[in-house]
Specification:
464 residues, UDP-n-acetylglucosamine1-carboxyvinyl-transferase, Chain, four-stranded mixed beta sheet, 23 strands, 23% strand, globular, binds shikimate-3-phosphate
Length: 464
């Protein structure tokens, strides 16, 4: 109980803090370039914003539940805003209050035909998850996105949804805009070839509208936030022979929800602590779902002094505080299932690599080439600009460690990819001289508060 009380107190503390950050973040939206200088040691307590993956899911599932759900600590990421805007386009009433949202769920059949094309912006999660839920509606809809999203693969969701009876067409049968007709869905058993939580979630959401049971088998266990929230809200969803099964047409019930802090956002600061000597930090109220914590395992395997305290469970999600203390790290190799489990943290781990003893090798990461940018190419190009030694492979890269020399400040082109802009802001903390991050406002896609938090830590350092 004490743990629950603690977690609640954290989230309330965060609520006002995150609102302040959101307002400050608007300032950064208009800042095209960000200059980063080497950092001095800092120590302090930090809170990261609400988890992006979980925010999308809570909003979508709450909109399909009966009754009002108040969701606290909802991510201010532009991606999650895209999800809210699409839901509004489907007739869902959403009120924004502080850094929370209140969603008026109308039940499984409550969405209305949209008057115009739904725009998922830059967000793959919005497009793929909504494609699943829209496939089961009794009205037609269209889904589009920005230039980057319109070039990302969608057949991975289209094909299994068609097997369920959905009527979907796409440009070249692969790319958005997606035209989704009304269809009667039936449950299927589907084995995914690619490890993708977005595809799994699309099928589980479609499974809500299907007749019978939908079973999804994945090659590697990916983040299970969709499963957890669907179960919390009343769906019959359970593991079945190493797969996950959901029964169609349940009744979902609204409830208050609190989004845990985003571990993928915390990862930037964890790596910062390993770059800047004499640094010590506690990050509070972070989601520690075991499908997301491979980053902590990998840092610990390299010798990082990282630990987790104050564990609790909220809405089926593990939440706790992470403590990290600067320590020299060895380096290592990431491959196989590990790669899938820390897919979003790979850019910042590559940026940490030149500060490790032996460097870091990343393999089996071909999925990185079809994210918001080709993250293998973008990371390699920008690391080379900073003087790192990088070998690029079709499925990853190898970045040399400290013996290859200290990084130098450089101009970084993140190619409109939020995680690249943040990863190189962290790499810059230990580099010689100034680093300029071009188009730095792209961080608003997942973490609008990023630069404000980073600057706050830098100030802490100066005051100490
Ligand atoms: C996400 C799943 C991952 C991840 C993305 C968020 C999710 O994508 O890279 O940032 O919320 O389900 P894939 O499903 O394409 O692996």
């Amino acid at each position: 109980m004490l743990v629950f009380a603690l977690m609640h107190a954290h989230s309330i503390g965060h609520r006002s803090g995150a609102w302040g950050c959101f307002k400050a973040a608007c300032y950064y939206f208009s800042v095209a370039k960000k200059r980063i200088h080497p950092a001095q040691a800092f120590s302090g307590v930090l809170m990261v914003p609400g988890d992006k993956s979980i925010s999308h899911r809570y909003a979508i599932v709450a909109s399909l539940a009966e009754g009002r759900s108040e969701i606290a600590n909802f991510s201010a990421a532009a991606d999650c805003r895209s999800t809210l805007d699409c839901l509004r386009g489907l007739g869902v009433q959403i009120e924004e209050k502080g850094n929370g949202v209140i969603i008026d769920g109308k039940g499984l059949t409550g969405w209305k035909a949209p008057r115009k094309t739904l725009d998922a912006g830059n967000s793959g999660t919005t497009m793929r998850l909504l494609a699943g839920a829209l496939a089961g509606q009794e009205f037609a809809s269209s889904l589009t996105g920005d230039r980057s999203l319109r070039s990302r693969p969608m057949r991975r969701v289209i094909e299994p949804l068609r097997q369920m009876g959905a009527r979907i067409s796409a440009r070249e049968d692969e790319f958005a805009p997606l035209e989704i007709g009304c269809g009667k869905l039936r449950g299927i058993e589907f084995t995914q070839k690619i490890a993708s939580a977005q595809v799994k979630s699309a099928l589980l959401l479609a499974g809500l509208f299907a007749e019978g049971e939908t079973i999804v088998r994945e090659p590697v266990r990916t983040r299970d936030h969709t499963e957890l929230i669907l179960r919390e809200m009343g769906a019959v969803i359970e593991p079945r022979d190493g797969a996950i099964s959901i029964q169609g047409r349940p009744k979902l019930l609204a409830r208050p929800l609190i989004v845990p802090g985003d571990l993928s956002a915390a990862a930037f600061f964890l790596c910062a602590a390993l770059i800047v000597p004499d640094t010590e930090m506690t990050i509070q109220g972070v989601g520690l779902n075991p499908t997301r914590t491979a980053i902590l395992d990998f840092l610990a395997s390299m010798g990082a002094l990282v630990s987790v305290v104050a564990l609790g469970i909220r809405e089926g999600e593990l939440v706790g505080d992470i403590q990290i203390k600067h320590s020299p790290v060895k380096g290592g190799k990431i491959s196989g299932a590990m790669t899938a489990r820390l897919i979003d943290e790979l850019p910042v781990l590559a940026a940490l690599a030149p500060y490790t003893e032996e460097g870091i090798e990343i393999r089996d990461a071909q999925e990185l080439r079809i994210k918001e940018s080709d993250r293998i190419a973008t990371v390699a190009e920008n690391l080379r600009r900073m003087g790192a030694h990088v070998e690029e492979f079709p499925d990853g890269l190898r970045v040399a460690g400290r013996s290859a020399g200290r990084l130098r400040g450089a101009t970084i082109d993140p190619r409109d990819d939020h995680r690249i802009a943040m990863a190189f802001s962290i790499a810059a903390l230990g580099a010689e001289g100034e680093t300029v991050i071009r188009d730095a406002d792209c961080v608003k896609i997942s973490f609008p508060e990023f630069f404000e938090l980073l600057e706050g830590l830098a100030k802490l350092g100066k005051e100490d």
